[in-house]
Write a structure and sequence with these properties.
With 303 residues, the protein is mainly alpha-helical. The protein has a domain of 212 residues. Helices cover 61% and strands 6% of the residues. The protein is built from nine helices and five strands; from the N terminus they run H-E-E-H-H-E-E-E-H-H-H-H-H-H. It has a three-stranded mixed beta sheet with strand order 3-5-4, sandwiched between helices. A two-stranded antiparallel ribbon has the order 1-2. The longest helix is centred in the C-terminal third of the chain and has 37 residues. The termini are far apart.
């Protein structure tokens, strides 16, 4: 190997230049990520918290994606007939919750000195009941909902079912789908930075693991907590008993066999943590029930 006049190999300076280039690449990507972060921040009117939603993702975009996903799901998992008893019961619960969305949105936004954008005005609400052993439900952006029949024996009653459905509706109202898409774009910026700077697969995996445990999973758990609160207020305002949320999650925990992964590694709060937070929210939920429930002629559908 050729030596320079001072007796040093030429490999050393080359490595330093390569390392310097890597750092410049990382700095440039970090600057772009910081710009993306600050330019797409906003305050959520229902929680008062700063959220990250890419300005290019509109509620109409979310609605279109939700409709496409809903059609694909129903094509693979055909729902029960709308005239089936459980379908009628679930539909009635959904209609009562939907009717209270504007009032609950206004009340939550007012708590933070803000006004509601009322994106639900553009929703095309629909609910399907899917025969499955899954104890699950969802509400996609744009108002397309589904309840799996496996949830019925766990919920046991209309009040508990309303708590679950209110939670799922809240995900759509809080625009959690757009927030997740934005988080994915931010993660992609990081992956591109790593790839361009020359990180190997092992280094990239380590970085993404840190991002997952330090940012992505806690963010997902926060979204679940936000949906728990808004959903509980929604169920209470629609004249359902919010107290049923506590035994519901106790049954949910029992149904899982207590084999859930540690909270820090999960997208959802631990059932015990969830129950504690719901218990703390109960006075507020009961206040919402007294304030918004028009109980005259309202009875919960049997389940």
């Amino acid at each position: 190997m050729r030596q320079d006049p001072l007796g040093n190999g030429q490999q050393g300076p080359r490595r330093r230049r390569g390392g310097g280039l890597r750092w410049w690449v990382l700095i440039l990507f970090a600057g772009y990520a910081a710009w993306y972060w600050f330019s797409n921040r906003s305050t959520d009117p229902y929680t008062g918290e700063t959220v990250l939603i890419d300005e290019s993702i509109t509620p109409q975009d979310e609605k279109a994606l939700g409709l496409q996903a809903f059609r694909e799901i129903l094509a693979q998992e055909p729902p029960l007939d709308d005239n089936a008893e459980i379908s009628r019961q679930v539909s009635e619960i959904a209609q009562r919750l939907i009717a209270k969305v504007p009032e609950v949105e206004d009340a939550l936004a007012a708590e933070h000195g803000m006004t509601s954008p009322h994106i639900e005005r553009h929703f095309e609400w629909d609910v399907a009941v899917i025969p499955s052993e899954q104890a699950n439900a969802f509400c996609l952006p744009g108002g397309k909902m589904a309840v799996y029949t496996g949830l019925v024996p766990v919920a046991q009653n209309a009040d508990a079912m309303a708590v679950v459905m209110g939670h799922e509706i809240s995900h759509a109202l809080l625009r959690h789908g757009a927030q997740r898409m934005t988080e994915q774009r931010l993660a992609q910026i990081g992956q591109m930075a790593g790839a361009v700077s020359g990180m190997d697969a092992q280094q990239m995996q380590a970085v993404m693991a840190v991002y997952g445990y330090g940012r992505a999973l806690p963010y997902a758990r926060k979204q679940e907590t936000q949906a728990d609160e808004m959903g509980l207020m929604l169920a209470a305002a629609a004249c359902f008993d919010p107290n049923e949320a506590i035994p519901l999650w106790q049954r949910m925990e029992a149904a899982s066999g207590g084999s859930s992964q540690p909270e820090y590694a999960s997208t959802h709060p631990d059932p015990g943590t969830r129950i504690e937070r719901l218990q703390a929210l109960m006075p507020k939920a009961l206040e919402y029930r007294d304030r918004f429930c028009e109980a005259s002629g309202t009875t919960a559908p049997a389940m």
